[in-house]
Amino acid sequence: MGDYEKFISLINSKLGIDLALYKEAQMKRRLTSLRSKRGYNDFESYFRALDKDDELLKEFVDRITINVSEFYRNPKRWDVLRDTILPMITKENSSITIWSAACSTGEEPYTLAMLMKEYFPQVSAKIIATDIDINALSKAKEGVYNEQALKDLPTPLKKKYFTFENMLYKVSPSLKSGIIFKQHNLLKDAYPKDVHLIVCRNVLIYFTDTAKNEIYQNFSKSLHKDGVLFVGSTEQIFNPDRYDFKLLDTFFYGKQN
Ligand SMILES: C[S@@+](CC[C@H](N)C(=O)[O-])C[C@H]1O[C@@H](n2cnc3c(N)ncnc32)[C@H](O)[C@@H]1O
User: Fold this and answer.
1) Residues with Cβ within 6 A of ligand 1?
2) Structural domain of residue 56, as residue ranges?
3) At 234, which helix (H) or strand (E)?
4) d(CA 127, CA 112)
5) Measured between alpha carbons, how far is 82 from 238 in angstroms, rounded to an integer?
6) pLDDT per position in the chain (257 positions), as tens?
7) Looking at 35, 65, 95, which one is the last position of a domain?
């Protein structure tokens, strides 16, 4: 087994994250540059150091998870969600479950919570927000953001759902209380059932085709019969039929009954 392959296997045993399911060229480049920056010549010595040093390990997890996110990321897609997809889902269901899968630091589930409160107040919405990275989840629970994270959020929502203090925006407790944050590994853990809307954006791009295939299948099983999957703006599914999905609008897939 080569140096990198051995490292992947040790990381899988230590953290339960299987890097073999992430696109190799990209991941190896990211990790080699971090390893070299820290002064290790090979992955074997880098692993020995990670195994002993929590700060180094945290930096490593940060590097593999890529937590970049924003409120209302790609605004036109959120407008379609609000104007077309959510009215369709809520027409048949007065109580719905929404899953923000790979929610990073919380911008996405809070955006969902705002849309539901603002435009569908008659609907009872349970929002589950998950990510593999517990550091990102603890920031999500804190709910404090800089200006940049809110740049695409419509101003009325910004005014209504945030307080501004010390140059930072703090989400209102009314939004927080509607969201259940928990750790979940898309490549390993059981998926929630009977979900009406799965929002999984800007993470599938990092996975191999085999891993993506498995995830789409799991999403399909996870959805309620009127359920919809909302993916990121570079993540269109080429053969949606394979997973019993039909294209509803760009980047939105409905479950085929
Ligand atoms: C770029 S962020 C996407 C955040 C948000 N969905 C968005 O579009 O703004 C990617 C997230 O995927 C998470 N992630 C990576 N691998 C994962 C896995 N196997 N299971 C669950 N989440 C994972 C990372 O921790 C990171 O927070």
Assistant:
1) 65-69, 73, 102-104, 107-108, 131-133, 136, 184-187, 201-203, 232
2) 3-65
3) none
4) 8
5) 24
6) 899 999 999 999 999 999 999 999 999 999 999 999 999 999 999 999 999 999 999 999 999 999 999 999 999 999 999 999 999 999 989 999 999 999 999 999 999 999 999 999 999 999 999 999 999 999 999 999 999 999 999 999 999 999 999 999 999 999 999 999 999 999 999 999 999 999 999 999 999 999 999 999 999 999 999 899 999 999 999 999 999 999 999 999 999 87
7) 65
